[in-house]
Amino acid sequence: MTKRYGSASSAAVDDLSLEIADGEFVTLLGPSGCGKTTTLRCLAGLEVPTDGTITIGDRTVYSAGTGKFVPPEKRAIGMVFQSYALWPHMTVAQTVGYPLKLAKVPAAERLERIDEMLDRVHLLARKDDQAVALSGGQQQRVALARAMANRSSLVLFDEPLSNLDVKLRNSMRTQIRELHNELGTTSVYVTHDQEEAIALADRVVVMNAGRIEQVGTPRELYARPRNAFVADFMGFQNILPATVVTADSSSAVVELDGIDARIEMASDEPRAVGDALLVAFRASHVEVSLAGDVPGSIAGRIRNVTYLGTSLRVLVETANGVIRAQIDERDFGRYGPDDLVDGHPVSLRISPSHLVGLPAPDDDAHSEPIASTMTTRVPA
Question: What is the pLDDT of residue 261?
């Protein structure tokens, strides 16, 4: 599927191909402008693609080749918007029951479903209140109940938690996943928050500039990003250039450019001596020690320390630039009052098991094949 706007030189969604299984929870993850919301809106029928095909179950709802376009109200999907999109003149019950009324569900069944959904989102006692008079978190629960009341096989979420505070986001995240499991829906969820994506999804789709960078389970993306973009977006705070010093079929010893430190690491692809690559690792996997001539360590000086309650974030200047480290609360006692101050020399160590080898930028490539279809397998 492709979507272009006017005479724009680049596509908002560029030859995207994605297949979603019945009952799966898939998250589209990426920065602003990457195409994730446009993809969702094309799936909903709120945008008309420029090219390609969209199929829901065994039903084609858009085809550039045949000119077919099924409008959103006839796609039998539910959608939860970022802005809640509640009607100011309706009560909570009327809001949740509106899609059932449009679907001509009999009155008795409609009332039963309204009560069922409001009970699931813990708002049954507020059914007669005006929807817009509720708190932000309660309004989002009303929007969630409305999207699921018609028992749509496919439910779309467009960054629904971005307007809520941290505590409410965590609570709503759990509720969304529980409802997905209980009702057996297929869910497609847009977010720019990698923690939210990992917590909710069966699979995460990382997008960049309208294209897919990588698709995988949360564990796969968290542990084995396929390039620097995905690594950075999945929370690898350190990505450094390195050169292969020795290599065999199962491992490579690399030297970080400008730093006399060689570290053995697993290699998914054979590498030759002299190859340039990137080495990624998380701040939490960096061990900060007092300065000393420790083999395999990286020497540096503290540039900044930030107290975060349960941890310290430490920026260390090295010959290769800044390395970010994290010291957990349980380790605070290892350091004296003058050990972690600006300008103090330190040594950094990273376990080889925590290093991830990535292709250098010039041999980086998108993980998904170019195609012009978007298929969602859901019950017809």
Answer: 63
The answer on pLDDT for 361 being more than 80 is no
Q: How far apart are CA 266 and CA 29, in angstroms?
A: 27
Q: pTM of this prediction?
A: 0.85
* Beta-bridge mates of residue 26: 188, 203
User: pLDDT by residue (tens digit) across 273-322?
Assistant: 888 889 999 999 999 998 766 667 888 999 999 999 999 999 999 988 89
CATH topology of domain 18-228+368-376: Rossmann fold (3.40.50)
Amino acid occupying residue 129: D
Letter string b/e over residues 167-187, b meaning 16 or more CB atoms within 10 A of that residue's CB: ebbeebbebbbebbeebebbb
d(CA 205, CA 20): 11
Is 41 within 8 Å of 62 (Cβ atoms)?
Answer: no
Domain over 229-363 is classified CATH 3.40.50.80: no
**Distance of alpha carbon 44 from alpha carbon 80, whole angstroms:** 11
122 phi and psi, to 5 degrees? 60, 45
DSSP state of 343: T
CB contact at 8 A, 70 and 45: yes
Within the chain, all domains assigned CATH 3.40.50.300 are found at: 18-228+368-376
pLDDT band at 252; cut points 50, 70, 90: confident
Sequence-ordered list of residues with C-beta below 8 angstroms from that of 227, at least 6 positions apart, any chain: 213, 214, 358, 359, 364, 365, 367
Q: Are strands 211-216 and 203-208 parallel, antiparallel or unpaired?
A: antiparallel
Cα 350 to the chain's mean position, in Å? Answer: 26
d(CA 94, CA 77): 19
Task: Please answer whether residues 53 and 65 qualify as being in contact, where contact means their C-beta atoms are separated by less than 8 angstroms.
Answer: yes
Count of CB atoms situated within 10 Å of the CB of 94: 16
